[in-house]
Amino acid sequence: MLYPLSYERMLNPAQCTARPTRCAGSCRSRTTNRIKGRCIAGDVLFSTMEALDLIVLGRQLARLGEQAMRDDDPDDDGVAALGTTLPVGALIVMRDVLASPGSSITDITTRTGLPQSYVSESVNKLRVKGFAEITADPADRRRTLVKLTATHLERVARHSARNADDVLRSALGDADEARAGKVIALLTDLAHQLRTEAPAPAAR
Description:
This protein is of the alpha+beta class. About 45% of the residues lie in helices and about 15% in strands.
């Protein structure tokens, strides 16, 4: 199950004083559960995100993403998934370079949020395995530019767009299709929002 939490039944809904994030009808008149300080009436969640819960959730989602990257792909004709041959950091760097070919190490670091030393190490791994090539910037020979090799471009593009919906549905356990769809849609929107709001690349 994704992010399991223990809870205790509350017999008096009035004990729940948290503000609801969504409410259809009279929430106070409905049976209410309390989950680690959260009040739930039916499928209505009264909640604030605790910092440690967010950290744990992030790690669980990361593991699910890595699982989706390792799973076999019927379109690969038996070729091992890139997630089984490359560390997750290299996969993140690879997708970033796919979207922005000719990027510098600084650019990749800014967009991905990974440490610069880790980005440099990942780029070198990709170069050694033949997935990427590096060149010096003609305008500034001190800067290294990274792009993917033409040989692996299609494979990298397919793996970078891998769908994780099935993995998430499995992790959600007995959640019905409608609820699972809502969770996946919220996670997709959150991922888009956080990418969109990332800081702009550093000035050259």
